[in-house]
Amino acid sequence: MASGWGITGNKGRCYDFWIDFSECMSQCREPKDCAFLREDYLECLHHSKEFQRRNRIYKEEQRKLRAASQKTDGGDGKDNHH
């Protein structure tokens, strides 16, 4: 990865993030000064924030669908037996 070559022989998709992070680490006094660049690089590699966001969106969509389904069924989640 750090060589800059991707799997197809072109520049790797995260290489620019790596360069920024690497330059910061070589010039900073404290590693925490480069935390945001590290975070960007790791997100590029693993997409963990993207997946978390997609999951939150999916769960919210499912919640709305269930709520709409209950509304159309005439139920509000409570037993209405008399």
Automatic annotation (TrEMBL):
<keyword id="KW-0999">Mitochondrion inner membrane</keyword>
<feature type="disulfide bond">
    <location>
        <begin position="24"/>
        <end position="34"/>
    </location>
</feature>
<dbReference type="Pfam" id="PF10200">
    <property type="entry name" value="Ndufs5"/>
</dbReference>
<dbReference type="InterPro" id="IPR019342">
    <property type="entry name" value="NADH_UbQ_OxRdtase_FeS-su5"/>
</dbReference>
<feature type="compositionally biased region" description="Basic and acidic residues">
    <location>
        <begin position="73"/>
        <end position="82"/>
    </location>
</feature>
<dbReference type="GO" id="GO:0005743">
    <property type="term" value="C:mitochondrial inner membrane"/>
</dbReference>
<keyword id="KW-0496">Mitochondrion</keyword>
<dbReference type="GO" id="GO:0032981">
    <property type="term" value="P:mitochondrial respiratory chain complex I assembly"/>
</dbReference>
<dbReference type="GO" id="GO:0005758">
    <property type="term" value="C:mitochondrial intermembrane space"/>
</dbReference>
<comment type="similarity">
    <text>Belongs to the complex I NDUFS5 subunit family.</text>
</comment>
<keyword id="KW-0249">Electron transport</keyword>
<keyword id="KW-0472">Membrane</keyword>
<feature type="region of interest" description="Disordered">
    <location>
        <begin position="62"/>
        <end position="82"/>
    </location>
</feature>
<keyword id="KW-0813">Transport</keyword>
<feature type="disulfide bond">
    <location>
        <begin position="14"/>
        <end position="44"/>
    </location>
</feature>
<comment type="function">
    <text>Accessory subunit of the mitochondrial membrane respiratory chain NADH dehydrogenase (Complex I), that is believed not to be involved in catalysis. Complex I functions in the transfer of electrons from NADH to the respiratory chain. The immediate electron acceptor for the enzyme is believed to be ubiquinone.</text>
</comment>
<keyword id="KW-1015">Disulfide bond</keyword>
<keyword id="KW-0679">Respiratory chain</keyword>
<protein>
    <recommendedName>
        <fullName>NADH dehydrogenase [ubiquinone] iron-sulfur protein 5-B</fullName>
    </recommendedName>
</protein>
